[in-house]
Amino acid sequence: MSLFQDREVARRIHIDSDLPFFEVFIDTPLEGIIPRFDNHLTEVEELFIYGNRLTSAIEEAATLPQIELTTLDLQWVQVLSEGWAYPLKGFMREHEYLQALHSNCLTLPDGSVMNQSVPVVLAVAAEVKERLSGASAVSLRHAGRAVAVLRAPEFYPHRQAERCCRQFGIDHAGHPYIKMIKDSGDWLVGGNLEVFERIRWNDGLDSYRLTPNELRKKFKELQADAVFAFQLRNPIHNGHALLMQDTQRQLVERGFKKPVGWTKDDDVPLEVRINQHKAVLNEGVLDPNSTVQWHAKCRMNAGANHYIVGRDPAGLPHPAGGGDLYDPRHGAMVLKAAPGLNDLELRSSVFDFAQKELAPKAAEIDKENNFKGLREFWKKLGHLGLLGITANPDYGGTGGKYSDHCVIMEELSRASGGIALSYGAHSNLCVNQINRNGNDAQKSKYLPKLCSGEHIGALAMSEPGAGSDVVYAKTDLTSKPQHGITAFLIEKGFPGFTTAQKLDKLGMRGSNTCELVFENCKVPAENILGEKNKGVYVLMSGLDLERLVLAAGPVGLMQAAVDVSFEYAHTRKQFGRNIGEFQLLQGKMADMYTTLSACRSYLYSVAKACDEGHVNSKDCAGVILYCAEKATQVALDAIQILGGNGYINDYPTGRLLRDAKLYEIGAGTSEVRRMLIGRALNNEYK
C-alpha cells in the first residue's frame, strides 16, 4: 500500500520505460495500517489543559499582564487549540514564522519537514511589546474574559511588507487581506499556548464545528478508507452534491471501499450553507451515511487525503487520464447556477489572480513590448474558465454573462492594459464570434482549445486603408462570382497565410499587433463563418458587444490610476504634510473617484441590459466613448498628482496614459461613436 503521489511517480517511470504498470489493492483492517499512516489516522495533540492544571492557570491569569485579542486572534486560538495547526504548540516564534514565509514549511524537532504556508501569528502594537517586555507568561483575553495563557512569549518584528509580498505577490493596501495585515501591529509575539476551554461562538452552529479528532473518530465509525474534502466558495446546491457523488463513485472504482466526503465553509455565511446542505440531503442526492458537515480549516490533520477546491482542480488525477475527479470549469459554471450571487465572488477571484500573476510583470511587458510567459498565462486563464466566459458549456465555455465578461476585462486591465486587450480580442472578438455565428462542427473544432488556452484567437477586420470604413477592405477572394463580403476562420499554418513584422506601438505594448498577409491562402469552404456574402453582418452584429466588453478596459485602467495616485498622495510629504491633505489635490481626487464611479455604473447597467437581451447600439457606443475619454483624463490626473515621478517610467502612470489612449481609437474612434449615437437619436424622431 503506497501513497498516491508515490504511485504516480512509479507510474511515470514505467510509462517512460514502455513497461506495463499494475496497482494491487489489499483489503487490510484499519487497525493494521494505523501505525504506517499515523499522521492521518491517529489523534492530533490539542492545546487544552484540564483538572488542577486548568484551575491553577486560571488563577495565575488574573495576575499576569494581558493582551486583548481581536475576533480574528480568537479564531486562531481556536485553530491552534483544536489541533488544526498541529504540531504547532502556539503562535509562531520567529524561526517558525521565517520558515513559513521563506520556504512554506516548518522543520520539526525530529528533522522532518511539514508544509506550512500560512503564518499563524499574533500581532501587537509597539506599546504592548514594551509593556510586556520581560514577562514570562501573558494572559490572553477576549471580551473581558481570559481564554488562554501564552508561555515564554517571544517578541519579534512583523515584517509586514515582506509578509505581503511573499504571501500575495504584492504589497498593496487595496487587497483586503493586505490591508488587514497592514492595520495590525508592527510586532509579533509567539509562545506556547495553554487554552482554558473550547472556543464557542454560541450562534447555534457550534455543533457543526468538529475538531480534527472528532472528525477522525467519525471517519473510523464510518469505516472510511478514503476521505475527500470539498471547499465550495459559493452556496451549496445540487451541482455541488452531484460533484461529491461522482467523486465518491470514482474513488470506489479505483479500489477504495468506503470513501467519505465532507465540506467546509468559506465565503458564504455558514447558516446559509447549513440550510442549503440540509435541503440537498433531504432531496436524496447525497447519502448522509457518507457525508460529514463541518466548519473549520481543511487540513490533513482532519484525516483528508483527497481535496477538491471550488475553482481549482486540486483533486486527485485519474490514473487512466481524461477522468479527473474535478472539471476545472466547474467552479465558474456553478457560480452561474447559484441564484442571488452578484459579481463579488468572480471579481475577488480575478483580482487575486491578476495581481499575483500579471501585475508584477506589467512594467517589463511594456518595456520589452513582449510577454515571454504569454502561453503559460493563457492556459492559466483557461484553467480558471475565463477565456470562454460567454461561450456554450457544451463546447468548453463557461456559459456566463456579459457582465461577468466585463468584470474579468476590468480586473485584468487594472493589472496590465496590454494583456487585458489581448484577452478581450481572444475571448470576445474571436471566441464570442464563433459562439454566436459558428455551426456545430466549427464550435466543436475550435472552441474547446480556445477556451482552454491551448490556442489563441483574434479578429482581423481592418486594413491600412480601411479602418472605420471596414467594407473598403481590399483583401479579396479568387473564387467567382462574388456578391459581398464573407467571414472566414483562418488557422495559423494555412498555406499562403503569414504575418508581417510586429508593430512598435505607443501603448498596449505586449499585446502584439502585426499585419496579416494572405497570398493565395487556401481556405476550406467549411471554414466560412456564418453565411457566404454575410461577413459584414457577422462582424457588425458583434460590434455592440465588443464595445461593451472593451469599455471595461478603461474602467480597469482608471482604477489602476486611482490606486497608485491615491496611495502616493497619502505617503508623499511636502511642507510637512501628506500632499493628499491639500484641498486642491483633494478636489482632483474627488473628481477622479466620481468619474470612475460614474463610468463603472454606466458600464454595468449597459452590461445588465445586454444580459437581459436588450442590446442598445447607442449605449454600447456611449459607454466606451465616455469611459475611454475619461480614462485618458484620469490617467493625466494621476500623473499630475505624482508630479515629476508621474512623468518617469519608474511609476506606472505613463503606461496607464498610453494604454488608455488606445480606447479612444479602437472599436471605432470617438468621432465614429458620436456619429453612431447621434444617428440613433435622430432615428428615434423619424
Describe the structure using short key phrases:
46% helix; 25 helices; single chain; alpha/beta; Sulfate adenylyltransferase; globular; 11% strand; 686 residues
SSE layout and pairing:
Elements: H1 4-16, H2 30-33, H3 38-41, H4 51-61, E1 66-68, H5 71-82, H6 94-103, E2 105-107, E3 113-115, E4 123-124, H7 126-132, E5 137-142, E6 145-157, H8 160-168, H9 176-183, E7 187-195, H10 212-221, E8 226-231, H11 238-253, E9 259-264, H12 270-282, E10 291-293, E11 306-309, H13 330-337, H14 344-357, H15 362-368, H16 374-383, H17 402-415, H18 417-437, H19 440-452, E12 487-488, E13 497-502, E14 514-518, E15 528-529, H20 535-540, H21 543-569, E16 573-574, E17 577-578, H22 583-611, H23 617-642, H24 653-662, H25 670-683
Parallel strand pairs: 1-5, 8-9, 8-11, 9-10
Antiparallel strand pairs: 2-3, 4-7, 5-6, 6-7, 12-15, 13-14, 16-17
Tally of separate helices: 25
CATH topology tier name of the largest domain = Butyryl-Coa Dehydrogenase, subunit A, domain 1
The level-1 CATH class of the largest domain: Mainly Alpha
- Main sheet strand line-up: 1-5-6-7-4
Globular, elongated, flat, extended or rod-shaped: what is the shape? globular
Residues in helices, as a percent range: 40-55%
- The helix/strand class is alpha/beta
- Strand percentage lies at 5-15%
CATH architectural group of the largest domain: Orthogonal Bundle
N- and C-termini, Cα separation: 80 Å
- How many E-type strands? 17
- Oligomer classification: single chain
**Assigned CATH superfamily of the largest domain:** Acyl-CoA dehydrogenase/oxidase, N-terminal domain
| Average pLDDT figure | 82
Taking pLDDT < 50 over at least 5 consecutive residues as the criterion, the unreliable ranges are: 37-41, 232-239, 262-270, 293-299, 305-342
- Rounded radius of gyration (Å): 29 Å
